[in-house]
Specification:
Elements: H1 3-16, E1 23-27, H2 33-45, E2 55-57, H3 64-72, E3 77-79, H4 82-86, E4 90-94, E5 110-113, E6 125-128, H5 135-145, H6 152-165, H7 175-184, H8 190-197, H9 204-215, E7 222-229, H10 233-243, E8 251-258, E9 261-268, H11 276-284, E10 289-292, E11 296-302, H12 303-310, H13 315-348
Helix pairs in contact: 2-5, 2-6, 3-8, 5-6, 5-7, 6-7
This protein binds manganese (II) ion.
């Protein structure tokens, strides 16, 4: 951690905000844990409260696991509009940068973020550290350097932010993220963290789970399930994670209908050449949004588009069709990986 730089930044930051200023902290649309934690941290760093320095977002939190955080940590996020933002003396943003909002924000004074790809220079105070796994890590560094007291609630939020942006410290994690995490560990509330990790399931899910389990088969190391209509998309995700734990299972694809969309969640153990993100892009890129990482991926397909390509949205037919599709794409990936393994040997001859 570069303490000298961070000290300088804190000075600049505090000099920028006058005592009487109303500061709006704007978060990205559908704010995630890193954004919410960083927003509260910035407010703490500026020594302010939610009346003078509210969190705002143009689109509210919708993801169930993030809503659990909002409820458990009592995080208030006000709806942002261009008019509302005009009434603030200063506009700050965390975990996002001004170009994201385009014309919707009148101006920005403070931007603290870790996302690459923005041109920079869009706010007088800017601290963008693209190597960091989370903005919450930058904010933790600020708080520690400023010797601010980090409350249990704030520590819990920051730890959850770092964990969720780095997939439990497995992706894009750096030494500074680990340092921040270590610092926050004794301060956080683990009972709350556990509740955020495992959101309550609706009772109606028991029936869905029972039906799905009774017909689950493992064939070619692949589990495919279509849950039919579900009320939350995290149920699909949880089911996919759950099924990956069974012996002999290497891939899982779980689908469910949510509103007028078919949501497909994919998991695998990431053996050589296997790539869940590529698989969903290949299979569904033409009819919906599809992508992800090697081990976890997601596709969201309008039912209309699925019907156009596949002829029907009947639940009983979706499952076998998904099995066909995934079997083919996994075979292709394995063949490609095998070919890549033998290729260098040939070059060496
Ligand atoms: Mn982030």
């Amino acid at each position: 951690m570069d303490q000298a730089l961070t000290k300088q930044k804190i000075k600049e930051l505090r000099a920028m905000v006058s005592d009487g200023d109303r500061v709006g902290i704007v978060l990205q649309d559908d704010p995630d844990p890193d954004a919410m934690a960083s927003g509260i941290a910035l407010r703490t760093l500026l020594g302010r409260n939610k009346q003078t320095t509210p969190l705002l977002a143009f689109k509210p939190v919708t993801r169930p696991e993030n809503l659990t955080m909002v409820h458990l940590l009592e995080i208030e996020i006000q709806p942002a509009t261009t008019e509302v933002l005009r009434e603030f003396d200063k506009i700050a943003m965390v975990d996002v940068q001004p170009p994201f909002f385009g014309e919707k924000i009148p101006r920005a004074d403070i931007a603290i973020d870790h996302h690459p790809g923005y041109p920079g220079g869009s706010a007088p105070f800017e601290d963008v550290r693209v190597k960091y796994g989370a903005t919450a890590t930058i904010m933790t560094e600020y708080l520690v350097t400023a010797e601010e007291k980090i409350s249990e609630r704030l520590a819990t939020a920051l730890i959850y932010g770092i964990r969720s942006d780095t997939l439990a410290l497995s992706r894009r994690v750096t030494d500074v993220d680990l340092q921040a995490f270590t610092h926050l560990t004794p301060l956080a509330n683990y009972s709350l963290l556990r509740q955020m990790d495992r959101p309550e399931l609706p009772l109606s899910f028991a029936q869905i789970l029972a039906r799905a389990m009774s017909r689950m088969v493992v064939k070619d190391q692949l589990v495919v399930l279509n849950l039919g209509t579900v009320e939350r998309d995290d149920l699909i995700v949880q089911m996919a994670d759950f099924c990956l734990q069974f012996e002999g299972v290497a891939w899982v694809a779980v689908a469910g209908k949510l509103g007028n969309q078919l949501v497909i969640s994919v998991r695998n153990h990431g053996m050589s050449g296997e790539n869940a993100g590529e698989a969903v892009k290949t299979l569904f890129g033409d009819i919906g949004s599809a992508g992800g990482h090697r081990n976890m991926a997601k596709a969201v397909i309008p039912l209309r588009a699925w019907r156009r390509r596949e002829g029907t949205t009947r639940d009983s037919l979706i499952e076998p069709r998904l099995r066909e599709l995934f079997t083919t794409v996994i075979k292709a990936q394995k063949a490609q990986a095998a070919a890549a393994r033998t290729a260098p040997a040939r070059n060496g001859n």
